[in-house]
Amino acid sequence: MTQPDDQRWMALALSLGRRGLGQTWPNPAVGCVIVKDGRVLSRGWTQAGGRPHAEQVALSQLAPNAANGATAYVTLEPCAHTGQTPPCASALIEAGLARVVVATGDPDARVSGRGLAMLREAGLEVTTGVLEDEARRDQQGFLLRVTEGRPLVTLKLASSFDGRIATAAGESQWITGPQSRLQVQALRANHDAVMVGGRTAREDLPSLTLRGMGARRQPVRIVISAGLNLPTLGPLAEDTSGAPVWLIHGANAPQKARDFWADRGATLIEVAQDPSGLDMTAALRALGQAGLTRVLCEGGGSLAASLLKAQLVDQIVGFTAGVILGSDGLPSLGPLDAPKLSDAPRFALTETRRVGADVMHVWHRADK
Ligand code: AOF
Ligand code: ZN
């Protein structure tokens, strides 16, 4: 049974959990609040690298017996397995909690209902489904990794008012303003990896690193390039920021290029290829297998189009500027081969925000 303040405390637990997004992969970013007599006793969230778990962090701050009779609000079903630490369900039982409120279940085969069962068997009152939709949205990356074997994909599109990303001459700096670019850094911070296509890597020589957000973990830098035709000078080859480089390529990538990047510490991932390009479903499955839960695609237009065509884009974050470039400007996306409107990928608006002189808009896949 839910109680009057359940939503309020769960909202707090969700906001704590979000602090871990981008930092905890392959684990979920969970939040936990322990409440007694209408007051917060302690708070916790999953730490960088995925451990300790949120419940353990919250419990570790309490004096012995302090949690007796208290309620724990947890954004994901407490774990039931012994990993490097004992199960969170046991820790909550031993700490003497009377009630545990959970937003949504954990589909991990080692947990999957067992965490809730352990709590109930020990006589704790268990309430589930509080702010479940919000929790599933926050944890969509982890849920997709476990249930579909691939990470969540966020597509970032920064464009002119009419959806262009450069002038006919290729001038693109800067269409959106400094505040939008700061928001992009915040997006990098809450994703596990940043991904671009080979052409963007060649033309923009991006560093793809996180600057100034106080993050402890740099996102993995992923480049998709069938032939590994990538610049051998520039930040991807030289950067010493400690951000890993993973390169996804096809069977035809020359050995010389593979050796060059392997020598520089890059991880090489080979996936199947057909005349239309690399198999993006296979590429994302490989990334899920490697533990990634949230991937931010920052372009270019042809990579973004192939992700959309393969129905692999879960959310779009758009930044739209008040500059107009016309049809001679470069479009933000390559062809989608969707001649009918009913075939076109469709997204539903979830948020709009003014960011400096631009507008940021967040969209989710309409069928999810
Ligand atoms: C929780 N609270 O904060 C997190 C949980 O490898 P381990 O032992 O750390 O276990 C990882 C699994 O634990 C992960 O797949 C997910 O099922 C759960 N993560 N559980 O109770 C947390 N991060
Ligand atoms: Zn746990």
Automatic annotation (TrEMBL):
CDD domains: Riboflavin_deaminase-reductase (cd01284). NADP(+) binds at residues 158, 174, 200, 204, 300-306. Binds 1 zinc ion. Pathway: Cofactor biosynthesis; riboflavin biosynthesis; 5-amino-6-(D-ribitylamino)uracil from GTP: step 3/4; Cofactor biosynthesis; riboflavin biosynthesis; 5-amino-6-(D-ribitylamino)uracil from GTP: step 2/4. Zn(2+) binds at residues 53, 79, 88. Its EC number is 3.5.4.26, 1.1.1.193. The active site is at residue 55. GO terms for molecular function: 5-amino-6-(5-phosphoribosylamino)uracil reductase activity; diaminohydroxyphosphoribosylaminopyrimidine deaminase activity; NADP binding; zinc ion binding. Keywords: Hydrolase, Metal-binding, Multifunctional enzyme, NADP, Oxidoreductase, Riboflavin biosynthesis, Zinc. Substrate binds at residues 172, 188, 208, 211, 298. InterPro entries: APOBEC/CMP_deaminase_Zn-bd, CMP_dCMP_dom, Cytidine_deaminase-like, DHFR-like_dom_sf, Eubact_RibD, RibD_C, RibDG_C, Riboflavin_Biosynth_HTPR. GO terms for biological process: riboflavin biosynthetic process. Its cofactor is Zn(2+). In the C-terminal section; belongs to the HTP reductase family. Converts 2,5-diamino-6-(ribosylamino)-4(3h)-pyrimidinone 5'-phosphate into 5-amino-6-(ribosylamino)-2,4(1h,3h)-pyrimidinedione 5'-phosphate. This is Riboflavin biosynthesis protein RibD. It comes from Litoreibacter arenae DSM 19593. The lineage of its organism: Bacteria, Pseudomonadati, Pseudomonadota, Alphaproteobacteria, Rhodobacterales.
